[in-house]
Amino acid sequence: MTEPWFDPNVYSWIPGTVLGCLAGVWGTLVGLLARKGRAKTLLVTIAFVLLGASALLLLAGIVALATGQPYAVWYGLGLAGLIGVLVLGINTPVMLHAYRQAEQRKLTAGDL
User: Fold this and answer.
1) pLDDT at residue 2 above 90?
2) pLDDT for residue 1 is more than 70
């Protein structure tokens, strides 16, 4: 076993907590704004930034596992990354669909 990258007893909860809180705020904003067709650029950008951060955490967890890091190091990084990739990967197309529906409603209302 190699020297741990960080103290897992103190820091292993931080990646999942930060990513979860940010994704929760993003989801709340999507729920409030996507149906109205507002802040599309901001929310799409945040979605891809969070998705990229999740992918990096997952990659870091895989590298930590491959290099023999302690369980709490690779698990803390990898689980947060895996959940983030899955949840954001599933919900980003749902958000884009909500924006398409809002745009369609605006076009339909304009035709009346």
Assistant:
1) no
2) no
